[in-house]
Amino acid sequence: MPALEELRVKLFADGANLASITELASNPFIKGFTTNPTLMRKAGVADYRAFARDVLAVVTDRPVSFEVFSDEAPEMERQALAIASWADNVYVKIPVTNTQGEFSGPLIRRLSEAGVHLNITAVMTPGQVAQVTACLAMDTPSCVSVFAGRIADTGRDPVPLMAEAVQILRGRPKAELIWASPRELLNIFQAEAIGCHIITATSDILAKLPLIGNDLLAFSLETVQMFRQDAVNAGFVIEVEKCLAS
Hints:
By secondary structure, the protein is α/β, with parallel strands linked by helices. 42% of the residues lie in helices and 16% in strands. It contains 11 helices and 8 strands.
């Protein structure tokens, strides 16, 4: 198992908590940031543009992804161009389809050919990866976010699919594959093993980074000690019932 500093896969922080983003911006292991409307809503963000301005004030040297939220291609394009104008390190997240399942390919092609840095999101099949790849300009940096965690939630092993996606994207040297929505720390090393370029991680997963390479016997003992201490702190008692002879 490689140490964190030896990993080739880039670790992006996924979230919408400004305090957390500010703290992580000083962490050299964090190579970029992603967010989405769902995370922003959960974090209580009310003003999209103001939130983005605050994030970009503290993250100036690494990619940051912000997502369009219209469902109509003309308005999605207008939003994308506006978001792209906010800073040079912005990537615009475009859903692979709209809510009617219509492929966003024509929009992706226009924006990519115009030099907009894109992050195509909510991708889940090799077919979608191939469709998106065909629409990306050769010379424009881009990302393709395959939601490996959601794939795993269906009972499917995402590793072979992600490995296939890596191969598909070889046709676009400026495009990077994102292992999105991971569920556990192990996914970082799975992404590393297949040559995935980027993996996102929420604060819950990032908090587990100090566990990398832990001695398992020591970890076992810590777990036993935790159970014991929690029982003591809770004041648990098991009374012994005396059985009277008849």
